[in-house]
């Protein structure tokens, strides 16, 4: 970035063909401090209705370093989002407006119960799928999304360091790693006995964020990676996005420092673009892997069902498999639902609990979400445990360069 601190504000403004009257007075007075690129960013912020961020700016000569740091941050936020900060604000504004207006994102869709396999722990069917899953596990990679802050939990540490059970105090990360290693060993033993093939390591990716990265690495290093080879574990850090103050998507400033934009992790959907841009998916595909399993930071029971679920994917040849749990009607957990549009489109997705009941009522089910003969809602509960077939997954991501459509979740 060229340094233009010597140029006058008027020179820069005329060079960029900007009318300086568009700039709030507090910014206009300081323009000479910035490079043309930074002034372009200022222009973008103003065009995007963000003049308030300059409201508290001091006279030139006061806090100049902080003003420059402000634009460094804006540049970072701009470069780390597809389409830049303007696109982020625009999308957020549209999504927030739809959410405020109570717009039904499922307009034109009819919900129905998706097809799937019901697993009952320990019965013959379960054992059959479990055996198939154990065999298949050495063709799998595991991805833990662990960039979340856990704000609602009210806990300051990283969630994967919490005890998964209280008798030994084993933390979630240890339990996950030991489970993957146990699966790796069982899978290798089985296939060695069957085909005489050699030992394979199951890759393990952890998505972190600025809030969790250092502490996750420290937890791994101070515990010798809980027995896993350090080279088997890869940490991918997601970038943060700007926090928004209101439904107009006004950028939120730090209450303690008005030159700082508050930021937070973008949501676990970032994992797809990160995996794609890191090139790791192609490495896995070229190494002959077939499955990618996604899971979350605090699910202590998960690995009891992982082998059987993977077996379901393998035997039924599911490209996308979402492991779900029994869910009481209206329980505050999203329901896995098939949605069929008037125009013929159809998809199986998670419908949030506050949307499922009204959607059912609006589409010919006057009682909404009710329990069926099993005593549970026919729409199983989403736990965000996905098993994707690597080939088709990579093909889909290649179409969008790894970008995934966003949704808004005001909390
Ligand atoms: P949650 O929905 O529990 O969100 O995340 P959270 O941010 O951790 O918690 P709150 O909302 O602040 O209370 C579900 C999973 O997604 C991960 C979390 O670590 C958890 O495993 N996650 C969430 C990310 O990896 N990145 C994010 O930006 C958000």
UniProtKB/TrEMBL annotation:
Which Enzyme Commission numbers does its entry carry? 2.7.7.64
Reactions catalysed: a monosaccharide 1-phosphate + UTP + H(+) = a UDP-monosaccharide + diphosphate
Cofactor(s) required for function per UniProt: Mg(2+); Mn(2+)
Q: Does the keyword Membrane apply?
A: no
Q: Which Pfam families does its entry note? A: UDPGP
User: Residue span of the signal peptide, if any?
Assistant: none
- Enumerate the GO terms in the molecular function aspect: glucuronate-1-phosphate uridylyltransferase activity; UDP-N-acetylglucosamine diphosphorylase activity; UTP:arabinose-1-phosphate uridylyltransferase activity; UTP:galactose-1-phosphate uridylyltransferase activity; UTP:glucose-1-phosphate uridylyltransferase activity; UTP:xylose-1-phosphate uridylyltransferase activity
One BP annotation, GO: pollen development
Protein name as it appears in the record: UTP-monosaccharide-1-phosphate uridylyltransferase
> What organism is listed for this UniProt entry?
Corchorus capsularis
Query: Which taxonomic lineage does the organism of this UniProt entry have?
Result: Eukaryota, Viridiplantae, Streptophyta, Embryophyta, Tracheophyta
């Amino acid at each position: 970035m060229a340094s233009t601190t010597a140029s006058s504000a008027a020179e820069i403004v005329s060079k960029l063909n900007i009318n300086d009257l568009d700039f709030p007075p507090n910014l206009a007075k300081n323009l000479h401090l910035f490079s043309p690129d930074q002034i372009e960013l200022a222009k973008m912020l103003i065009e995007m209705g963000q003049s308030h961020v300059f409201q508290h700016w001091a006279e030139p000569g006061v806090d100049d370093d902080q003003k420059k740091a402000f634009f460094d941050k804006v540049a970072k936020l701009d470069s780390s989002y597809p389409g830049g900060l303007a696109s982020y604000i625009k999308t957020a504004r549209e999504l927030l407006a739809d959410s405020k207006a109570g717009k039904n994102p499922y307009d034109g869709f009819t919900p129905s119960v998706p097809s799937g396999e019901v697993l009952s722990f320990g019965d013959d069917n379960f054992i059959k799928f479990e055996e198939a899953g154990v065999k298949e596990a050495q063709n799998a990679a595991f991805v833990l999304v662990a960039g979340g802050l856990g704000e609602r939990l009210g806990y300051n540490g990283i969630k994967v360091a919490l005890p998964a059970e209280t008798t030994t105090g084993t933390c979630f990360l240890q339990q996950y790693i030991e489970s993957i290693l146990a699966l790796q060993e069982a899978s290798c033993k089985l296939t060695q006995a069957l085909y005489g093939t050699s030992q394979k390591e199951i890759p393990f990716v952890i998505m972190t964020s600025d809030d969790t990265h250092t502490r996750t690495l420290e937890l791994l290093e101070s515990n010798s990676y809980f027995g896993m080879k350090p080279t088997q574990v890869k940490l991918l850090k997601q970038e943060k996005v700007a926090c928004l103050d209101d439904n107009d998507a006004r950028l939120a400033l730090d209450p303690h420092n008005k030159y700082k934009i508050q930021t937070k992790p973008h949501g676990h959907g970032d994992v797809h673009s990160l995996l794609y841009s890191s090139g790791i998916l192609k490495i896995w595909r070229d190494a002959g892997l077939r499955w990618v399993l996604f899971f979350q930071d605090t699910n202590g029971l998960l690995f009891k069902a992982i082998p059987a679920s993977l077996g379901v994917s393998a035997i039924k040849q599911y490209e996308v498999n979402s492991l779900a749990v029994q869910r009481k009607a209206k329980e505050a957990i999203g329901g896995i639902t098939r949605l069929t549009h008037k125009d013929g489109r159809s998809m199986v997705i998670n419908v949030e609990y506050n949307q499922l009941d009204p959607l059912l009522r609006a589409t010919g089910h006057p009682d909404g979400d009710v329990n069926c003969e099993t005593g549970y809602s026919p729409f199983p509960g989403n736990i965000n445990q996905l098993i994707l077939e690597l080939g088709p997954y990579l093909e889909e991501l290649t179409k969008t360069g790894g970008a995934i459509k966003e949704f808004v979740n005001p909390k």
